[in-house]
Amino acid sequence: MQSLEVRRAAGQDAGHGAEGELLAEGRTSAVITGDHGVQVFAGVTADQFAGDASALESFEAALAAGKYTPEAFENHSDFFHPPMSPSSLSRYPPN
Length: 95
Hints:
Blueprint: E1 3-8, H1 12-15, E2 21-27, E3 32-33, E4 39-44, H2 53-64, E5 87-92
Antiparallel strand pairs: 1-2, 3-4, 4-5
């Protein structure tokens, strides 16, 4: 787990650094609600999208040879190897 801060910055502050108004703070892997109604989640989540590199390579090679082989994608490989998943950062601004 790590600590995190969500800040709103404008002008020179928006380009770099950690300046700006603090909107929310907390720890990863938890939904954090800030004073202004902002909700944030940062942490490991289920994979929302994954590409199958070997299937794409096979499909493109067949296509270059004049063949259409959509079955190349039927092996359902997951290169993120569950339970490991990419990290996610989601921001839920208030209405």
